[in-house]
């Protein structure tokens, strides 16, 4: 039986349209390497059409009341849940992720987050009005920026699209969004769901490569450009945006440490760390990638982590048998293999370290001990199911090792001592610090990093405010 390979389209001004660009990319199912769709590479003219539609839509959308925007987002959340099966299958074709994970962690969580942003639309605040100059009243308007250009990644395609459009639309902006060139299908289903809910042109989806994204950044219309991706991509976006003084919102890489003290419950901690590390095949910028453990319990923790990791399966054709799915694409699969091939001799692979099965891009859950702080596997982002375990002796040493990387997105502390938890959470230089847990996010709290992990916040009211501008209005009292 031959699989029907669909040619995908852009979504502009409320309709699916065939772009001017004729080059097509293969969309590959990473569980088996089969081509499941063809995606166009949009040209500058296609980007211009999307920007024009978004700019025209903004003229009216900026005047839509917060209550009306709230209702639109609530309706979209309901539509998302109703279309869960379609979204799951579309995304599974592109990512190979476990279907239950997509349903629970992207569709259900995405709907919940849309409902948060719906509420946030009605909570915009500015400084209270007052007479700061005699005879004059001043107040602050918090306004939408206008058109925003957004680029989403391939690791959680649907959820990251929601993280992009949710706060932007809640604040009254219109959007041109480019999904990853390897995972566009669930985003296009999301776009289809907006028909009849959002006015035409409020959300536009343009398919393509990094060059398409660069054309979006260079376009004169957007007032803000947002990307979730690699440090390299973030630098390119920030550089391009700076040329025309656009604002940039960057959520980039991570190298999250889990700092384990000797008083922690070793068996419970080992199981949690293994699960948080290998969730979604480690393709998560907040995933634990470095375990720093007090030397007196190092061997016990490693043994317990290896034992629990043996229960976390991957590589099965039936995804319900897997804890995590494959790596997303052949280039990424090769890059993870290259990291392991380049391991220094002083490193020891305790478990994993190779491909799982003989089909697709599955990779075993891998634990490496003996790495030095200066090794690439410690310093550079692997973005796969590979973690290192290093020893420390003192609290100060633990903090120094944890902070000694260019990334500063996420971290965790594992201890039963309250004072240790408070001191170390204060001193860790990361945008998120979890205590005796990891990776959990909630719509009400901000997510974003420091240093090479970028700037700007996703989720929370802080994230919504990033998509607004501040205007001071002063009025004379006597005219």
UniProtKB/TrEMBL annotation:
InterPro entries: Ald_DH/histidinol_DH, Ald_DH_C, Ald_DH_CS_CYS, Ald_DH_CS_GLU, Ald_DH_N, Aldehyde_DH_dom, Aminobutyraldehyde_DH. The active site is at residue 251. Signal peptide: none annotated. The keyword Oxidoreductase applies. Keywords: Oxidoreductase. It comes from the Bacteria. Residues 18-473 form the Aldehyde dehydrogenase domain. The keyword Electron transport does not apply. Belongs to the aldehyde dehydrogenase family. This is Gamma-aminobutyraldehyde dehydrogenase. It comes from Arthrobacter flavus. The lineage of its organism: Bacteria, Bacillati, Actinomycetota, Actinomycetes, Micrococcales.
């Amino acid at each position: 039986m031959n699989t029907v390979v669909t040619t995908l389209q852009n979504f502009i001004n409320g309709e699916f349209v065939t772009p001017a660009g004729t080059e097509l990319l293969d969309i590959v199912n990473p569980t088996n390497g089969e081509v499941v769709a063809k995606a166009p590479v949009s040209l500058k003219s296609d980007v211009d059409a999307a920007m024009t539609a978004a700019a025209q839509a903004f003229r009216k959308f900026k005047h839509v009341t917060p209550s009306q925007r709230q209702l639109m987002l609530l309706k979209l959340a309901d539509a998302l849940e109703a279309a869960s099966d379609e979204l799951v299958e579309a995304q599974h074709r592109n990512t190979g992720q476990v279907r239950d994970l997509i349903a629970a962690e992207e569709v259900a969580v995405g709907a919940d987050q849309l409902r948060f942003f719906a509420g946030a639309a009605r909570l915009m605040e500015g400084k209270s009005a007052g007479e700061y100059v005699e005879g004059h009243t001043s107040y602050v308007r918090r306004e939408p920026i206008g058109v925003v250009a957004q680029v989403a990644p391939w690791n959680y395609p649907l959820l990251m699209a929601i993280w992009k459009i949710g706060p932007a639309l809640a604040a009254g902006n219109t959007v041109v969004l480019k999904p990853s060139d390897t995972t566009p299908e669930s985003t296009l289903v999301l776009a289809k769901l907006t028909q009849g809910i959002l006015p035409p042109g409020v959300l536009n989806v343009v398919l393509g490569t990094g060059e398409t994204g660069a054309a979006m950044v260079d376009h004169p219309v957007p007032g803000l450009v947002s990307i979730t991706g690699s440090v390299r991509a973030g630098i390119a976006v920030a550089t391009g945006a700076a040329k025309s003084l656009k604002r940039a919102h960057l959520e980039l890489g991570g190298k999250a440490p889990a700092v384990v003290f000797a008083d922690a419950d070793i068996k419970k901690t080992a199981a949690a760390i293994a699960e948080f590390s290998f969730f979604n095949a480690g393709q998560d910028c907040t995933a634990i990638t470095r375990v720093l453990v007090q030397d007196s319990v190092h061997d016990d923790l490693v043994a317990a982590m290896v034992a629990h990791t043996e229960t976390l399966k991957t590589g099965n054709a039936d995804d319900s048998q897997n804890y995590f799915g494959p790596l997303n694409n052949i280039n990424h699969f090769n890059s993870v293999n290259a990291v392991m091939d380049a391991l220094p001799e002083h490193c020891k692979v305790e478990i994993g370290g190779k491909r799982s099965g003989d089909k697709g891009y599955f990779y075993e859950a891998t634990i490496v001990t003996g790495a030095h702080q200066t090794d690439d596997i410690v310093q550079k982002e692997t973005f796969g199911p590979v973690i290192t375990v290093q020893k420390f002796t003192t609290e100060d040493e633990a903090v120094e090792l944890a902070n000694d990387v260019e990334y500063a997105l996420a971290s965790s502390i594992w201890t039963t001592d309250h004072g240790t938890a408070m001191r170390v959470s204060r001193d860790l230089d990361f945008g998120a610090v979890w205590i005796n847990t990891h990776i959990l996010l909630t719509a009400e709290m901000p997510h974003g990093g420091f240093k090479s992990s970028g700037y700007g916040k996703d989720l929370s009211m802080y994230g919504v405010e990033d998509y607004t501008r501040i205007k001071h209005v002063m009025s004379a009292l006597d005219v």
